Amino acid sequence: MRILLVGAGGVGSAFAAIAARRDFFETIVVADYSLERAEKAAATDSRYVAARIDASSEDAVAALCREHGITHVMNAVDPVFNMPIFNGAFAAGADYLDMAMSLSKPHPEAPYEKTGVKLGDEQFAVAGDWESSGRLALVGIGVEPGLSDVFARYAADHLFSEIDELGTRDGANLVVTDDEGNEIFAPSFSMWTTIEECLNPPVIWQDGDWHTTPPFSEPEVFDFPEGIGPVECVNVEHEEVLLMPRWVDCKRATFKYGLGDEFINILKVLHTLGLDSTEKVRVKGVEVSPRDVVAAVLPDPATVGPRMKGKTCAGLWVTGKGKDGAARSTYLYHVVDNEWTMQEYGHQCVVWQTAINPVVALELLSRGTWQGAGVLGPEAFDAVPFLDLLTEYGSPWGIKEL
Amino acid sequence: MRILLVGAGGVGSAFAAIAARRDFFETIVVADYSLERAEKAAATDSRYVAARIDASSEDAVAALCREHGITHVMNAVDPVFNMPIFNGAFAAGADYLDMAMSLSKPHPEAPYEKTGVKLGDEQFAVAGDWESSGRLALVGIGVEPGLSDVFARYAADHLFSEIDELGTRDGANLVVTDDEGNEIFAPSFSMWTTIEECLNPPVIWQDGDWHTTPPFSEPEVFDFPEGIGPVECVNVEHEEVLLMPRWVDCKRATFKYGLGDEFINILKVLHTLGLDSTEKVRVKGVEVSPRDVVAAVLPDPATVGPRMKGKTCAGLWVTGKGKDGAARSTYLYHVVDNEWTMQEYGHQCVVWQTAINPVVALELLSRGTWQGAGVLGPEAFDAVPFLDLLTEYGSPWGIKEL
């Protein structure tokens, strides 16, 4: 297995650090728009090679694949670049993995009721080409989407006879402090992307079809395990809702993000003022996008790890009937402590938790334990070997009846 | 009387429109950094002349005064330019009026407990020079500071024998709608200045001295008259607190601004994110001040008049003992309806209400009813002729026992 890792940002660098401890692959070409960043991440392991890449160019992706005899392209950049990387991998005859799917476009007339272009639509549109070529695009194989989808398949196969709702629930109790120890506002994930996913119309699967709602709909306090506790969660547009119903039978699929009151309020204010906009405005002789300014004034999420404390939880709340036919309500989850990831890997917990899952998936693909062709989500594969290998990596998952 | 009006923005243009109906002056030179803007405001009246001015240059201000034989300089620009205009007027032997005082600087060690450089300190520092030259600087003669200070003098002279608190309270029920009639967030006053005054440490006069508090301190719901109703008010740094105790005996002086929950929340979020900062940040190859970006994405306050509905109220809540020695609690106020100012003057109510007061003051100075030398606040003069003339202008004040 020869891997091209596109993107040496927070998640890409953590991927490189995790993979460095495994022996299932021959090489990883670590490619980034910044060669310096690629070189820094590539320095982790002697099997790694650094390269510069323009991820917006399908031809550049294909050329780099051919140059290095790449068998698997691992996409770890902003989903805005998904299609050129996805198409470039296909053109070069490589398999492909990503952790977020091609972007959505709201419905032009009823954005908060009907779906427009859905997450992943562009990728699923060419699934037939991938299948007939015998090539695999494993989409959405981070932690959410990714591990959450593995949980869905596990629940359907081993825990439930009938599923009412597959409800992904994500929450954390992370706190970032400044040099004086005062708590500061510093998102642990890209603010640009957080604004994108939180202000897009959330999508819900219900009774055989998808529909949308206004942002921040159906607020709910979910009590997260392992000391994280209750966090205010709201509907957010996320890939799980688009992936799970394609392979797992369920009446309803939702994604609720534990933003917490403060973060929800901040996002609402940014939207009220128009500071979420990506359209450039003229400010004293220069032109800037307000959303870029918001991202620029906040600390870089890749740098907050050492000043962050707490745990993050990704999980799936499944309701329905158990194998015995009785009502069942179960939360399958994965909790990571920032202190542990910083000490063990030198990467903060949110990017680390995202990055471990594609490493596990690639190892299963290299073993032939997972195999397939087409554009497939994680729930298209057997969940058990994935969960076992995740535990073997030293990061076990949990289960709790609610 | 020959007036130099420095600034043809929202307040300056409204000043020109109000003064155009009065005959107490010979000419007004309307000067702005933008000659086009000056010409537009000067077109109101045949006695007006337009000029270009750099308000940051004391020499330019003095030269323009000399060129036009100016007797009174009316400062209607951002208070950041106060000192060059104030000094330029003095150099040219003219009297001076402004509607906001020289800026403060927080205490370096205890910004939320002690005052540093206070509003007006730079101007009061040279009060002796103005007095010995027989020249008058009438500072803070807008609506707040301005009319509120006149109310303080009126209360002391005619209503109270002993004053506990002089509490300026400002509130409105203004609503701005977009082209489709949906309510939008659009401040009726400069967002840059609003951030400045709301996030600076609020100042309070108490038992013979000034001290500061954290922003948004001592929230209080004040019930404003004439249908405006209850609005959440908080302490804000404002000139009244620095002016009133110099001339009017009181135990305490405060300024609370009826920002309302939504606006307070917005300001807090901007501060949390660092978007209130005036220091430039680098954003994708350009440098901008975050606060300038916030101001740029919002509608220009000078243009919202036609899409605005509601009333604005400026007033002073006085508590203590009445002339009869019994406990008294009285609100003296001035309410303006945006519909009326737009129809009568073509200017929105907030800038109009600010601008009418210096016109009244200049008319009293031209008559010799008000006279004085030094750096003086509005409370240094007899309030009755001012309030009578304000009423004669068609904009009466009110009084209410609380």
Automatic annotation (TrEMBL), chains A, B:
Domain Saccharopine dehydrogenase NADP binding as annotated: residue spans: 3-137
Domain of life: Bacteria
InterPro entries on file: NAD(P)-bd_dom_sf, Sacchrp_dh-like_C, Sacchrp_dh_NADP-bd
Limits of the Saccharopine dehydrogenase-like C-terminal domain: 142-394
Protein name: Saccharopine dehydrogenase C-terminal domain-containing protein
